[in-house]
Amino acid sequence: MVARPDKRALKAVLIDLSGTLHIDDTAVPGAQEALKKLRNASVTVKFVTNTTKESKRNLLERLHRLNFDVQENEIFTSLSAARSLIEQKNHRPLLLVEDSALEDFTGIDTSEPNAVVIGLAPEHFNYQTLNKAFRMILDGAPLIAIHKARYYKRKDGLALGPGPFVTGLEYATDRKASVVGKPEKTFFMQDARDDVGGAQNAGMLGILVRSGKYREGDENKISPPPHLTCDSFPDAVEHILQNLL
Question: What are the STAS domain coordinates in residue numbering (predicted)?
C-alpha cells in the first residue's frame, strides 16, 4: 500500500489489492471497514494492482463479492498499462496471460504476432509456448513484461510469479524486457519490494503490510526503506488517519 504526500498534507492513497485487501476470495480481516474510514477522510483513494490472472471486470466482481466499496474507474492495473503500450507501439502481441485476463485486450490484433507480452499464465508456461516466445524474441520481437514479480500469495501458499519466466527468456535471448507494471515509476505516475520500493522510487511514501506475500525481513530488502511496516491494511489506515492527514 502506498501514499503520496506533499509538504502540507497527504492528498492521495494508492492501495494494492491482492495481499493487502484480499487473498484470492478471502478479505483481509477488517479491511472493508478500514477502507470506509479512509474514504471518509479528505483524501483521494485509488487502487493499483499487478494482477494479471483476471480482467479488471472479474477483479471488480471479486471485490464486490467481498463487500469492498470500489468503482471500476478507481482501479489501475498492469494489464491496462500493457494495453496502452501495445496500442502506442502498434504491436500485435503473443499474449502469455491467463484466459480470464484476455478480456482486457479485446480488439487488439494478435494475428501474426510481432511482440511477446508476458504476465501470469500458469496454463501457458509450457516448453512449447515459451520456446515460441524465445524464437520470436531472437528474431527481433520486443519482450514486454506486464510485471516481474518473483512470487505471489495463493490460499495454498506462495506460488511462482511471471518474473522467473521473464528472466529466463531474457537470459536465453540476451535481451532485456520492457516492464510496464510495478515497480516501474511510469506505472505509478500513470512482490513486497516491487510494490513499496517502486512507490518510493516514484517519490511516494511506502507502507508495507505483513499480509499477503510478505516474508520475514522483506522490509530490509527495500531501498529506500518503507516509511512504515504494519501488520495489516487496517493498521496502515489508522497510521494514515492519525499521522499523515
Answer: 1-86
**Burial class (CB within 10 angstroms; exposed 0-12, middle 13-18, buried 19+) of 58:** middle
Q: How far apart are CA 220 and CA 193, in angstroms?
A: 9
The amino acid sitting at 225 is: P
CA torsion through residues 23, 24, 28, 33, sign: positive
* CA–CA distance, 75 with 12 (Å, rounded to integer): 14
**Cell numbers standing for residue 245:** 492527514
Question: What stretches of the chain adopt beta strand conformation (E)?
Answer: 2-5, 10-15, 22-23, 26-27, 44-49, 75-77, 93-96, 115-118, 143-145, 151-154, 157-160, 178-179, 205-209, 228-230
Q: Are 209 and 7 in contact (CB under 8 A)?
A: no
* Cα-trace Rg, the chain: 18
Span 175-217, pLDDT tens digits: 999 998 765 555 554 454 455 555 555 567 788 888 776 667 6
Alpha helices in the chain (DSSP H): 31-39, 56-65, 78-89, 127-138, 163-173, 185-189, 192, 198-201, 233-239
Whole-angstrom distance, CA of residue 133 vs CA of residue 123: 15
- Alpha carbons within 13 angstroms on the beta-carbon side of residue 73 total 1
Phi, psi of 111 (to 5 degrees): -75, 145
